[in-house]
Amino acid sequence: MNAHRAHSPQTRPVFCTIVPPHLLDQLSRHSDDVFSLPARRTLERDATQRTRRQIATVRHGLLAAAPATPDVDPADRKPQRTISDAEGKEQLPGKTVREEGEEPVQDASVNRAYAGLGATFELYLSVYDRYSIDGAGLPLDATVHYGEKYGNAFWDGERMVFGDGDGEVFRDFTLPVDVIGHELTHGVTQYSANLEYLGQSGALNESVSDVFGSLIKQHSLGQSAQEADWLIGSGLFTDQVEGEALRSMKAPGTAYDDDVLGKDPQPATMEDYVNTGADNGGVHINSGIPNHAFYKLAVDLGGNAWERAGQIWYDTLTGGSLQPDTDFAAFAAATTEAAKSRYGDGSDEHEAVRKCWSEVGVTAD
Prior knowledge:
alpha+beta, Elastase, domain 1, zinc, secreted, protease
């Protein structure tokens, strides 16, 4: 067994998508088949993949927390990327089309996936000294051209998978680098805090992926917190959609307002917290609250968001203080303590963390 595929009874099944079910459900109910049929197929495929993941979990166990960082010379810590092509089918991994160190191919989706995996690897290594998403050099695998008009991208616990979109609402899912960073960060969470994908802990799981997905984009573009757009999935919608992106960390609830998609339902503060049984307790909706807290922190501190603000979130995620069922209040307390530990009691960073949570209505527990 590969050392990076070791198993642990503590780690939970993982299947995380970038497009929330509520958005696909909205599309699936549209009277025009051009919108509804691809959305229904995407929802069905997601349900099938989720079931396969659960069956694999029962049969073979679960992905483990990361092994200790191997004794590898920093100069030799390189990504190991493999990109496969599903060729419109639903079988994984598909045909291998580009491996680490090989030249770009003619397929732009393959090259974007390869570059996005590299940008994610680079942020975690150069900024946080994390050797791949498990901290121990885990190879990064991805599959493009999954399914027919598949309108999503997902992390299944082992690889990234990208659909081509339906061409009506969604473009190719390899286009936004933050989508790639978002999904791979689910792997970082899987190998560290292992947050349950349910309720507030699930919303935190989603938010952490949005945070680091945005930081990966900002880092690759060399943008400061003030310069960044703080949008998740910008460029994913076609020109027919009245919307900028899937989510906005700067202004949750404003990412889209479209006749077909409806209006972005994300709240920015606890005052508008959504109590729902759908989407594992609204994990893609209520993530807007911790997203907005991080945005406020990053802008308040200024400079590059991956530095002080990102470091505090990374310390929190990997520091060992979080429980799988951590809620917003406990996460707020953990980030406050992380800022105090790294920067000092009463430091600008410590006070800024306390302020950002207060402004979104979360009281640290």
